[in-house]
Amino acid sequence: MKFLRNTLDKMHPLFDKGGKLEKLYPLYEAADTFLYTPGQVAKGLTHVRDSLDLKRMMTMVVVALIPCVFMAMWNTGYQANLAIQAIQEAGLEPAFDWHNSIHSALGLAHDPGSFLDNLVYGAIFFLPVYIVCMTAGGLSELVFSMIRGHEINEGFLVTGLLFPLTLPPDIPLWQVAVGIMFGVVIGKEIFGGTGRNFLNPALTARAFLYFAYAGQISGDKVWTAAKFVRDGAVDGYSGATALGWLGQLKPKQVDELGSAMESLQHIATTGGEQSVSWMSSFLGTIPGSMGETSALACLIGAVILIATGIGSWRIMAGVCIGAAGLASLLYIVGSETNPMFQVPPWWHFVIGGFAFGTVFMATDPVSASMTETGKWYYGGLIGAMTILIRAINPAFPEGIMLAILFGNVFAPLIDYFVVQANIKRRALRYAA
């Protein structure tokens, strides 16, 4: 390790101001910071404002995301292996690609009852998406750092992990690269970089893909990493998410199946019917975006973020209260033409990306409200908007993404009114 330290110290003058590689200083600084703790020590009088620095904050978010990453790999493989088994039982021929070539080379099979088969097969889908995301997004960060002459911020470590977790497993890798570059550049860098963006970069990237390439990020053929051969052509495995299924239900189907919630026991897939229960949704053993299916994994992440003071419990509670309030109202009012009104409030918490968005996206300290009172209003607005989008507009069954971006836009305004109200109260107090 001493050799590495000495090598980096010898290279430093090349990248320092006036050196031959001055323009590449952000790249050198990123490698040095990643390998070693900065050796500078503050001298004289210092002003300590907080025990948390950016690096520690981002590291804790990554730690909190570990349960979701595990589920992204295991559940992606589990759903794929279940689908492959169903395809074979239906008398169809599975279509395999390079993912299966790697899996087979490791001597593994497609047994959904095998923990290792599921974990490794899912990892073969998740890791390439993550690597492409980090490479393309990291290059975007590097270019802006070189142009502006500042260090690469640690903020992208979190954005680069959040974004892949919100994607379906079969998404083309070139779309991952385009999406994350859009999120980094348009969602953050053009506003000045980390700490100056008013939109969540990961959600900006996902929203871009959602509207630009809807065919690869929505519908019922993108959530399970399995394909099959029919009439000589390769087709995707059909299997809607619980939220997607509820969003496309027709009143006639509801009458035939009993109720909207009972219809979740009969979700049509290529290999037959699939059943979704509240508990399977809570655990995350259902199709969906790779890292968003498990409310339990998100709950573990929430405990870590709240215990370490990183995530705001006020925002999380505000989102839940706002969602529960409007969902309860719609559930009580009911509707004969819109099956989404029949979804009980406690179901909204475990389907779609509600839990993931509440814990990891809405609490982004840069794009969320700063004031303590404002966090309640900000969270409540996101929660209510999520249910409103889900129930009123069936074209967007997943509402949390758009709701958080909507909340990001209104966060400065919420803080402004909270501060003004505080100033007004203090003025009245002293006037009295």
Describe this protein with a few key phrases:
mainly alpha; translocase; two-stranded antiparallel sheet; sodium; globular; three-stranded antiparallel sheet; 432 residues; cell inner membrane; sodium transport; 2 domains
Uncertain ranges:
none
**Largest sheet, strands/sense/barrel:** 3 strands, antiparallel
DSSP summary, beta strand count: 5
State the end-to-end CA separation. Answer: 67 Å
Helix-strand category: mainly alpha
Q: Mind explaining what this structure looks like?
A:
The protein has 432 residues and is mainly α. It folds into two domains: 8-30 and 32-36 and 54-218, no CATH class; 280-286 and 294-427, no CATH class. The protein is built from 18 helices and five strands. The chain has helices at 2-15, 25-35, 54-89, 98-105, 115-148, 155-165, 173-187, 201-212, 214-217, 242-248, 251-257, 278-283, 295-307, 313-333, 345-348, 354-361, 372-392, 400-431; strands spanning 93-95, 227-230, 233-236, 267-269, 272-274. A three-stranded antiparallel beta sheet has the order 1-2-3. Strands 4-5 form a two-stranded antiparallel ribbon.
Summarize the structure.
With 432 residues, the chain is mainly α. It has helices spanning 2-15, 25-35, 54-89, 98-105, 115-148, 155-165, 173-187, 201-212, 214-217, 242-248, 251-257, 278-283, 295-307, 313-333, 345-348, 354-361, 372-392, 400-431; strands at residues 93-95, 227-230, 233-236, 267-269, 272-274.
